[in-house]
Amino acid sequence: MQSENDPPTLDYRTPNPAFEGVTIKYFEDGFCIGLPTPPNPVPRVVAHSVGTFVADAAPYAILVLFLFGISRILLIFKHIPWQIFAIIAIILTVGIVNGWTIIRDRRRTPEIKLTTDTLSIRYFFIPSGNLIAIDLARSQIYDVKYVTHSGNLVIRCHHQEMSQFCPSSDPIVLQWIADRIREALKLSSHSTPE
What's the pTM value of the predicted model, to 2 decimals? Predict the structure, then answer.
């Protein structure tokens, strides 16, 4: 038995939200779990790719300018069909829109939100650099578990494919998230980590 003067016994099976950066806000019929924002690798990868391309192409561009002169190169561009410029403009527009989306969303806090109707999973980067945005009907969810061998959180729903993602690299946090979702949905705890 512990007295008031004894230091508290720490339970190492539950995450320390302050230490991990995990926040949880409870609502009437659900909650919102916020996770620390991971470093965004996409801008670094894009900057490295553009820098490599410029470094590789610059010597050839200088050589072409030197051999043909600026006036001849402008003359070549004068005779290029307008469709080529339209294709280049479309490619640049798509790149700018996608880049803006990544830049705009890179600092949003990844969250798992359970409301009366849905389980929403937002702002998690996957290895391809895209952001996950999943909405699942609360009434259709029948299993939530943390799978240890893959390190993923798995959510199974009726009439939908299985959803799996990895919101944290800490297995204790992943198990804690799965337990919170299972408790809120009143799912049986028969499913154990695989």
Answer: 0.59
